[in-house]
Design brief:
The protein is mainly beta and 90 residues long. The chain is 9% helix and 38% strand. It has one domain. A hairpin with a 2-residue loop joins β2 and β3.
């Protein structure tokens, strides 16, 4: 499940034939690798997307051209700033 309330932004990059989509939330980020990921980026920005999954390699040929295909998902926690790393206020 994707926490829409914590969604900050999405960033799409192309590397060769593949695309990389970075979804940043308050406490973590989700990195997607695949094809035609712009539709996923748009759905996320509209808060219409709630579930993502990797499509197994043996099923990728069943997906029509232009439809999103996720090859890899990496979720990582964004570290909280420690007291020593915070900028002074005031």
């Amino acid at each position: 499940m994707l926490p829409h309330d914590d969604f900050a932004f999405a960033e799409l990059k192309r590397e060769g034939k593949e695309q990389h989509l970075r979804l940043v939330f308050a406490m973590h980020e989700v990195l997607l690798r695949g094809h035609s990921l712009r539709r996923i980026e748009t759905a996320m920005q509209r808060l219409e997307l709630s579930f993502l999954a990797v499509l197994p390699g043996n099923q990728r040929s069943l997906i029509p051209d232009g439809q999103p295909v996720i090859v890899e998902i990496v979720v990582s926690e964004i570290p909280l700033p420690t007291k020593g790393n915070q900028e002074p206020t005031g």
